Amino acid sequence: MTLVADANLYYPPLSAQALSLLAIQTLELSAVLWLLRCIVQPQYKIYSFFQAKNQPKERNWFLASVLGLGFLILLVFSTSLLADQLIGPKDVNNSILKEILSSGPISETACNLVYCFLTPLLEEIVYRGFLLTSLASEMKWHRAVVISSAVFSAAHFSGENFLQLFVIGSVLGCSYCWTGNLSASFVIHSLYNALILVITYLS
User: Fold this and answer.
1) CA separation for the pair 89, 40 (Å, rounded)
2) What is the reported pTM?
3) How many alpha carbons fall within 13 Å on the CB side of residue 81?
4) In the chain, how many H helices and how many E strands?
């Protein structure tokens, strides 16, 4: 148990916080899938997001994943340098996340499941599988990528990271449009989040 004496507040153990985050993210994913299945688009099934839609076989998800991840890391690094020049450097270390990752195997496993599987799956289904697909049916695909990426970035409620999140959303959106399914964007998103976890843990 962790107590803050001056405020007499009780904070649950870090492992409990990590497991709570895992449970909440699982519920969010289940709710989104239920809404898509029963209310928004009854024909949607989770596996349909990972099936190619009228795309040539040479546009395979593995190639798109490798190229997309490399391009994403390069762009994020470049935009981070630009942001440092314009608004000054910022601390990239998330101390709370680092504490959770360092608090034991249960917390570490829960964080890995949340950040490397559940969150990428949820966000790819919502922002690329549903939003980008819906927008692309009404406008040219590159405009749809820009709008969906802006929504993706704004939904994180982080002004200082808006540009970086927009770049991430754009790369993920382009990979989805190129392959016609979510396999590549999910893999890129998952590996990028895993890289962030490793950097946070080692920093």
Assistant:
1) 43
2) 0.84
3) 5
4) 9, 2
